[in-house]
């Protein structure tokens, strides 16, 4: 069964963009907690964050204030927790904020402070827990920070979907996943801002279910079932919980939420 990573700290307010609200995390956890066990993570350690960022980067984030710094460490800790769960055979979804995929080695922006995915993947690689990894980014925006930190690493395959257009998004993703080599773990930067009721105005909850299903199948075929997903974008709180649940059900290979069990009329 899928496991959710969540901390009450993800519901705190801290100085950031007006749309990156605690309501986002609240919408996701209030849906997922009715379906899945929830694990509470510890904050990341400084040494974990320094695997992906320069020391000056931490100083600069600290200048944003302690609220921001604590939130950033807690989100990165959620990513590390989800990655470790994946290695123990439990598919994990981390309902974290702030998001991370725009944070580069020595810069931040786009509501991101630490690159949660890069911190998690680098930690797995540098502790020898895995030898290879794939990162699939389904957010509306390019994971430029992730590309900057992990892009030159031959152990990491990056699948960036932001060049896909229109209704072909899901088909393009499937083509890209079919081309992936076998890896030790798959991390998904799971942004939901391409939702029909969000900025991208493109993907339905059924599409997110198909995307989850394709990713889950790919993980079972090519990564011994080891997959974790981290919340990135997605700003329409009242739809975000439903979209994430549909995605998670897809990851598990289960039917769309609310649909009758397969095999029945
Ligand atoms: Zn985005």
TrEMBL record:
Tell me where in this chain the Histone deacetylase domain is found: 20-161, 184-250
Picking any one GO molecular function of the record gives: histone deacetylase activity
- Read off the InterPro entries from this record: HDACs (IPR000286), His_deacetylse_dom (IPR023801), His_deacetylse_dom_sf (IPR037138), Ureohydrolase_dom_sf (IPR023696)
Report the superkingdom from the record: Bacteria
Q: Which Pfam families match?
A: Hist_deacetyl
Protein family per UniProt? Belongs to the histone deacetylase family.
Name of the protein: Acetoin utilization deacetylase AcuC
Organism source for this protein? Desulfacinum infernum DSM 9756
| The organism's taxonomic lineage, starting at the top | Bacteria, Pseudomonadati, Thermodesulfobacteriota, Syntrophobacteria, Syntrophobacterales
């Amino acid at each position: 069964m899928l496991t959710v990573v969540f901390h009450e700290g993800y519901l705190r307010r801290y100085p950031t963009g007006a749309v990156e609200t605690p309501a986002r995390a609240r919408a996701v956890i209030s849906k997922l907690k009715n379906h899945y066990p929830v694990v509470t993570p510890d904050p990341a350690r400084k040494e974990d964050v320094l695997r992906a960022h320069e020391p000056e980067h931490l100083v600069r984030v600290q200048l944003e204030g302690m609220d921001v710094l604590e939130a950033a460490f807690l989100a990165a800790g959620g990513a590390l927790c989800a990655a470790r769960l994946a290695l123990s055979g439990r598919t994990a979804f981390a309902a974290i904020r702030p998001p991370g995929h725009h944070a580069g080695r020595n810069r931040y922006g786009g509501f991101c402070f630490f690159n949660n995915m890069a911190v998690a993947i680098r930690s797995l690689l540098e502790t020898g827990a895995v030898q290879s990894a794939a990162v699939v980014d389904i957010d509306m925006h390019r994971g430029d920070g992730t590309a900057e930190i992990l892009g030159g690493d031959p152990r990491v395959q990056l699948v960036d979907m932001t060049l896909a257009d229109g209704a072909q998004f899901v088909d393009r993703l499937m083509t890209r996943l079919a081309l992936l080599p076998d890896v030790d773990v798959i991390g998904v930067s799971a942004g939901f801002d391409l939702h029909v009721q969000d900025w991208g105005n493109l993907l339905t909850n059924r599409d997110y279910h198909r995307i989850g299903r394709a990713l889950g199948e790919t993980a079972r075929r090519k990564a011994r079932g080891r997959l974790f997903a981290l919340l990135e974008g997605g700003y329409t709180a009242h739809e975000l919980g439903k979209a994430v649940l549909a995605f998670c059900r897809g990851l598990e290979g289960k039917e769309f939420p609310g649909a009758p069990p397969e095999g029945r009329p």
